[in-house]
Design brief:
Blueprint: E1 2-3, H1 13-29, E2 35-36, H2 48-57, E3 64-66, H3 68-71, H4 74-84, E4 97-100, E5 125-129, E6 132-141, E7 149-154, H5 160-169, E8 176-181, E9 184-188, E10 193-196
Parallel strand pairs: 1-2, 3-4, 4-5, 5-8
Antiparallel strand pairs: 2-9, 6-7, 6-10, 8-9
């Protein structure tokens, strides 16, 4: 795995924010590639990389939706408000980003904003925290992947592959999925095609 923040000073918010954004863009361009971020300390249930991404991506105009595990931790919402000013919304379809701490309870993608054919960027990016990039392998195909790429992540719902196929069928609409395990990040954009092994 490539650590693009290896030479980052211990505390440099501007550089760290740029590095997190750049890492996410690289993950989107190369689905299934894993990048390591210099994580940000935040209250549970935040993973360090999730906190780094939210500090980089969210501001007062960026509505966030939180799953039950995040909502059960008031300090997490306080951290979001203090560091980003982003509003926490109750309607997942109104969110620019959704934070999922419990991957096993990942909501159906249809609950989130899907964008429109004219403005596909108005969809929700779903950030899902997992335990590890290991487990049952999936095969990824599509833009940014030469031939195919094996990808593993756990835990994910048993029907995750089917959900991703339905999401791909909506292209250019649909959600983008970002998976986080500790300081590691990978992306499965709506353009990716998944085959379960």
């Amino acid at each position: 795995m490539l650590d693009i923040t290896a030479n980052t000073p211990e505390f440099d918010p501007a550089y760290a924010s740029q590095a997190a954004f750049r890492a996410l863009m690289e993950c989107m361009a190369r689905p299934g590639d894993i990048r390591t971020l210099k994580g940000v300390e935040a209250p549970a249930p935040f993973a360090p990389a999730t906190a780094a991404l939210i500090r980089s991506l969210a501001d007062y105009e960026t509505p966030l939706w939180l799953d039950t595990a995040f909502l059960a931790a008031p300090k997490a919402a306080e951290w979001i408000r203090f560091h980003t000013g982003a509003p926490v919304v109750g309607d997942p379809a109104a969110a620019a980003f959704a934070l999922i701490a419990d991957a096993r309870a990942l909501p159906d993608f249809a609950r989130f904003a899907q964008g429109t054919s004219e403005c596909p960027d108005r969809s929700t990016t779903v950030i899902v925290q997992i335990d590890a990039f290991s487990g049952n392998a999936m095969t990824l195909k599509g833009p940014g992947i030469k031939a195919t790429r094996a990808f593993v992540a756990s835990p994910v719902p048993a029907d995750f592959g089917a959900r991703m196929k339905e999401n791909r069928a909506l292209f250019p609409r649909g959600v983008d999925v970002v998976l986080v395990a500790g300081n590691d990040v990978a992306a499965l954009p709506r353009s990716v095609m998944i085959e379960e092994r």
